[in-house]
Every structure is written in C-alpha cells, then in structure tokens.
Automatic annotation (TrEMBL):
GO terms for molecular function: metal ion binding; oxidoreductase activity. Residues 25-87 form the Alcohol dehydrogenase-like N-terminal domain. It is an enzyme of class 1 (oxidoreductase). It holds the Pfam family Glu_dehyd_C. The lineage of its organism: Bacteria, Pseudomonadati, Planctomycetota, Planctomycetia, Pirellulales. Keywords: Metal-binding, Oxidoreductase, Zinc. This is L-galactonate oxidoreductase. Residues 1-24 are annotated as: Disordered. The gene is yjjN_1. Belongs to the zinc-containing alcohol dehydrogenase family. Its cofactor is Zn(2+). It comes from Lignipirellula cremea. PANTHER family: D-GULOSIDE 3-DEHYDROGENASE, NAD-DEPENDENT ALCOHOL DEHYDROGENASE. Its EC number is 1.1.1.-.
C-alpha cells in the first residue's frame, strides 16, 4: 500500500510504499482511513525539509486529521467493526509524567502521529489503540475530518474559560458573554468561529480578504461579523472596555498579534494559536501592548494540541452546527482530491478554500 510522506532534505511530498499492518493484537484496532485533512502543519513540515522521522526511518508518513473506519479489532477491544472513528494526534511517551494531560506535555515527552516521530494516517490501514480513538456518529461522517482542527480551537476556548473563572468569578463569561475576536482566515480561524458560536458568543473575524470574498461570506454565514484589516484601525483604540474579551489569534503573524493587543479589554485573554515556525523576527514597538497587558491584567496564553475534553466538544459542536447551519458547514470542506491525486493539495493551497481533504477509495 502507499502513503503520503515527507523526507529530510526535500520539500516535495511523495508516495511511499508501506507494508500492510498485521492483524490487530490484543488491545489493538485496525483502522482504514476514509478521509484525510491537509493542513498548514503538513505544508510546514514539508517546507522545513526536516521532518521528525520515526527513529531509524528515512521518512515521515504525513496525516494527522482523519476519519477512519474500524476494520478489525484484537482481543479485549469492545469497539465494533464498521464503526467510524477519528484519532487523536498526540500520545505520551512511556517516559512522560503519567499525571500530566497529554496536550500539556513538553516536547520530547510525546509523539504526534503524522508530525513528531510516528507515522500518520495517510496510510490506508493502520493500527491503533481504542483510547486514542473517538467514535463518530454516522450522521457526522461528512464533517468529522474537521474534528481535529476544531479540537485545537476548543482547547483555546476551554482553557480561557477555566482560567477566567478561576481568576475572576465562576459566572465570568456566562452573562454577558465575552466579545470574541478571531484573527486570520485559515482553518483554525474558522474552527475558532465555530467554538465561539456554539457557545452563543458574539464573534468578529479579522482578515485581509475583501468583504465579498467567499471566505468572508462563509464566515458571516456561520454567524461571525467580518472586519477587513483595512478598516480595523485597532491602533486608534483607547478604551479598556469597548474592545474584545477574548482574542483567538490564528495568524501567527506578530504584526497581527500586536494590532489585536490594542483592542483587548481589561481582564481580557488572548490565546495564541498560530506560530511562525520560521521565526522571522522584526523590530516592533511592543510598548503599548505591554502597557495594556500590565494595566489590563491580560493573560497571554499559548495553546497547542487538544485534551480529550476538547475533542469531545469538537464532535458535539460539529453536530450542533451541522444541524443549525448545514450549508455553510458543508462548505468548510472546500477542496477534495482522490488519494492518487493528493500530492497537489500539499503543494498548492486554494486561497479561498478552508479545508482540503483527501478521499480514499474504500
Ligand atoms: C495539530 C496539533 C499538533 C500541532 C503541533 C497541529 O497542526 O493540529 O494537534 O499538536 O500541530 O505539532
């Protein structure tokens, strides 16, 4: 069988021959990939020319957003053959602190399938353990591949809620709800809109697209207000209450992060969800953002990956939005390629698309 891989020294994705997995042993599940999401992380792994290959291997099989079907189970597994599942990305290494939530582990204490030292789900067949799989309702099949990116946004929101209720009052952000600003227009930004709207929070999305672009339209159909960057004028903002209580920063661009810091309210939270892996550094005046952070008791929160709680929320919220907004939710999956034609999705991005997926034959 073939899988989509990255290798050191090359930025080109390629098809690699991979052995079929053996029958599942006790406690194991054999899964078949039905749909695979392509994401910015895949493209960054390729662009780096330095994938984290599994020890002793010459390549990394890509793929960490996946909808799969259970093909066979080993002894002691209660999952039914034929069930739909979606796997989590990160798994603790045996050396990791067992008391630490997996998504909070430090680099070196975990592997990530398709990202860090373990092959991913572009393999048509792979083995896993049930504790890494979430059951998917058959009705959610068309959207379930979006559960993993949504879990990342859900974590940001869940962490922010916990921190705010801990440092303020248990009722914080229930009535009135927080005003949310999402910066960016990629898949995580759209996921952030869903995480906010499912909680009935008002949300504004800030991006560089024209008002009438398909992505700006889609964001509005999902219930967000669109704020184009050229009309934002964040630097002229001087109130501590007329801005946003929660900023979900999804661009990874320091200019945008700093611009958004100008409109973070007192006691506000900004969660950093994007990061520029290349780490380009620019000389920027941080003084105002720092002053506001100090005087406003801001919390700047970096967030990566997702806890089981966030994955469960993602699946529930996808179903909720599918029921309330069926058309725009379907439009989130903007590009589809059959497996044999998948490589182009890793090399080119549809600039007005949200999520590109690879569809497997069986
Ligand atoms: C994935 C996360 C992962 C992160 C860092 C993201 O694309 O969605 O689950 O932890 O990359 O590797």
């Amino acid at each position: 069988m073939r899988a989509i891989a990255a290798r050191p020294g090359s930025s080109e994705p390629y098809f690699v021959d991979a052995p079929e997995p053996p029958e599942p042993g006790p406690g194991e599940v054999l899964c078949r990939t039905l749909e695979l999401g392509v994401c910015g992380t895949d493209r960054e792994i390729l662009a780096s020319k330095q994938p984290w290959t599994p020890p002793g291997e010459s390549h990394l099989v890509l793929g960490h957003e996946c909808l799969a079907r259970v093909e066979a189970v080993g002894d002691g597994v209660t999952l039914e053959v034929g069930s739909l599942v979606t796997p989590v990305v990160r798994r603790a290494r045996p050396s990791a602190d067992p008391g630490m939530r997996v998504d909070m582990l430090t680099f070196g204490d975990y592997v990530e399938r398709g990202i860090v030292e373990e092959h991913g789900f572009s393999l048509p067949l792979w083995l896993d353990r049930p504790e890494h799989l979430f059951l998917v309702d058959p009705g959610l099949k068309p959207l379930a591949v979006f559960a993993e990116p949504l879990s990342v946004a859900e974590k940001a929101v869940n962490e922010a809620i916990r921190l705010q209720t801990a440092r303020l009052t248990p009722e914080t952000w229930s009535d009135p709800p927080p005003r949310v600003l999402v910066t960016g227009m990629g898949p995580i930004a759209f996921a952030a809109i869903l995480a906010a709207r499912c909680r009935n929070w008002p949300v504004v999305i800030y991006g560089r697209d024209a008002d009438d672009s398909p992505r700006a339209q889609l964001a509005q159909e999902l219930g967000a207000e669109y704020l184009p960057a050229d009309r934002a004028a964040f630097d002229q903002h001087d109130s501590f209450t007329g801005g946003y209580d929660l900023v979900l920063e999804c661009t990874g661009a320091e200019e945008v992060l700093l611009a958004a810091a100008h409109v973070l309210n007192a006691r506000g939270v900004m969660v950093w969800l994007g990061a520029d892996r290349v780490g380009r550094s620019r000389s920027l005046n941080l003084a105002n953002a720092m002053r506001r952070a100090v005087v406003g008791n801001h919390l700047h929160l970096g967030s990566v990956n997702a806890a089981p709680r966030d994955f469960a929320d993602a699946l529930q919220h996808l179903a909720q939005m599918q029921a309330s907004h069926p058309q725009p939710m379907a439009a989130l999956i903007s590009d589809r390629a059959p497996f044999h034609d998948a490589l182009a999705q890793y090399q080119n991005r549809n600039k007005q698309g949200v999520k590109a997926i690879v569809q497997y034959e069986k």
